[in-house]
Amino acid sequence: MFEDIPVEVGLIHEGERIRKEDMHVELGGPKVPGKFELVLVRDPGAITDGSVRVVGPDLDMLEPGKSYQFGILIEVSGEKLEEDLEGVLERRIHEYCNYIQGVMHLNQRYDIWVRIGKKSFSKGLKSFRQIGSVLIGLYRNELPIIEKIQVTFLTGGDEFDTYYPMARERYEARDSRARGLSDEEVDTFYGCALCQSFAPSHICVITPQRYANCGAISWFDGRAAARMDPEGPIFPIAKGECIDPESGEYTGVNEHARKRSMGEVDRIWLYSAFGYPHTSCGCFEAIAFYIPEVEGFGIVHRRFSGPTVNGLAFSTLADSTAGGRQIEGFHGLSLEYMRSVKFLKADGGWSAVVWMPSEIKELLGSVIPADVSRAIATENDAGDIPTLQAFLKEMNHPVVGRWVSPEEPAPGRDSGQGRSPEHPVMTIGELPLSSGGVTIILKNAKIYAEKIIIRPAGAGKTGGGKDA
What we know:
Blueprint (H helix, E strand, L loop, with lengths): L22 E6 L6 E7 L10 E4 L11 E2 L1 E8 L8 H12 L5 E4 L6 E5 H6 L4 H15 L5 E7 L3 H21 L9 E5 L11 E3 L12 H10 L5 E5 L3 E3 L4 E2 H10 L25 E6 L4 E6 L12 H8 L8 E4 L19 E3 L2 H6 L6 H4 L11 H11 L29 E11 L2 E11 L4 E2 L11 E2 L1
Parallel strand pairs: 1-4, 2-5, 3-8, 15-17
Antiparallel strand pairs: 1-7, 5-8, 6-7, 9-10, 9-11, 12-13, 14-15, 14-16, 18-19, 20-21
Helix pairs in contact: 1-3
């Protein structure tokens, strides 16, 4: 099918990771403020069928090892195509790019991150026109309702400056159309498997009030995709009986999770970061991370480049969140989900959020309750835990009412609510404890102690240790 392409194209390459030392160039990604991918449904007369344009320097003209602004514009037409399908078709860019050997595509919309591998470049993959040819072939082959298609890659120039704001406006218009419907009003949710090549046990469940983690697929998009391509990667899920409306547990979702993850995941709470949280792939727009020292959540999004209030960068937190695992206290999510009344509903919603970058606090200002908003710190208010504690006390954040002094008994919630923020805390991914020939492994443990004593291995009880 792609005999003129110098590298292999196929499912076998989906999920391939290209590390920094193995990349020829990086397109978009966290170091570049301007990037987008956009699909537009056009009138047939506005499209030159099969055309691939490159605006700005082509792949072989980019300096190796560098990062560049990047845009992908795909324009399509067809008798059965309508504007509501744009977001669905757009998400296929992620899937199809990853079919190409030596091309890694992550994320979506205004957060795309593409790397071209050194090996594929040396084999002759040296033009975006080659990648465009693959995209056109795959779209035609898998989605025959597309009658005409043209692709434009943008690495600079006035056209980039024209299409980038247009793309942002288009994303917002789609999201606005999807607001208003509730989870209780439908009997079908939708699942998406586009990211399972990167996270095999990831179960993405899309509901009217819980966007896909990537932020690119709404419930309406899911419905349109399932109707357009019944055998495709987006499919219906019968939600079944509601077991717990507070945490968002449904029998149909649990059954779907068991089948799709081959038993790795058997329960999902859609509205909580504790218990059985919704899994995360790696394309999430933001992360909610629990801060046990203050009994609340921090939020960080991809575009925030600095360390968060607990000293960890987005990339480090993402390593603890991604991979299709259910890690209590770590929750990948979309920015649009944060507009929903179901946002961390079981954990207190916005009343449980204590820190976030000023950019998203401003972006979501209209949906954050006013009495809570003033008490949520940003990077301008707190850069470490002690400063955050002082800020929350000063602002009388709702979480402060749950703090108790060391002398008071804790209420006993598993997540640590009621613990004094002055106590030392350790959060450990996996801790083995051995005694009497038996090893007990504590996974994702949160340990609270008045004193921690560290001794060298083999030291006796009176050995020289350090108190922490």
